[in-house]
Specification:
Length: 189
């Protein structure tokens, strides 16, 4: 998908979710802490949201990044081919997010693959999300610093860290090589 097409699709999805929840731009701005003007630009495809901004909007809309990027297909396939998986690049850090899980299947689990470049840092502030949603961060290669509350964990290849999704956390790669990892989200209660 071309960058302009992706920005338009992201904007359309935010507008659709906002309207489905009977929220105005002002309502979404108040809940997310993102300015009304920025939300309007994103909805019109004039601005590409960063991972942090998109996470704040998703939290205010009561969804996760994985669900945000999932399509609403009626006929779901249990197979998700790599070439068909949706990619998104954070315009601020350059990290690449690949939605691995098949869309539209009745599973409470979403799997996301991430390529996190050297020097990248993304802060996810604590937010209200579905009760019971958890995530595992499983590192395949490189190293990654994960900060939860006041504790920083250095994750290396093969390490896995569990956390509640609504908890504030920081992904940071202060190392010279990229980190590649999976985020496994579980929405079961």
């Amino acid at each position: 998908m071309e960058l302009n097409e992706l920005e338009t699709a992201i904007g359309d999805r935010i507008r659709l979710l906002r309207q489905q929840r009977a929220m105005t731009l002002d309502d979404l701005a108040a809940r997310s802490g993102v300015s009304r003007a920025m939300i309007s630009k994103v909805e019109r495809g004039e601005a590409s949201p960063t991972a942090q901004l998109l996470a704040r909007l998703c939290a205010a809309l009561g969804t996760t990044l994985s669900r945000f990027f999932a399509t609403e297909e009626e006929a779901a396939s249990p197979l998700s081919r790599r070439g068909d998986q949706r990619l998104w690049r954070d315009p601020e850090t350059g990290y690449i997010r690949r939605s691995v899980s098949p869309d539209g299947v009745p599973s409470p689990v979403d799997i996301v693959e991430v390529e996190f470049p050297p020097g990248a840092r993304v802060v996810f502030a604590p937010h209200q999300i579905e009760t019971g949603t958890t995530q595992h961060v499983w590192v395949f290669s490189g190293r990654l610093n994960m900060t939860l509350a006041d504790e920083t964990h250095v994750l290396e290849a093969g390490d896995c860290l569990f956390m509640a999704l609504g908890d504030g956390h920081i992904f940071h790669n202060p190392y010279e090589e990229p980190a590649r990892y999976a985020v496994v989200l579980n929405r079961s209660r």
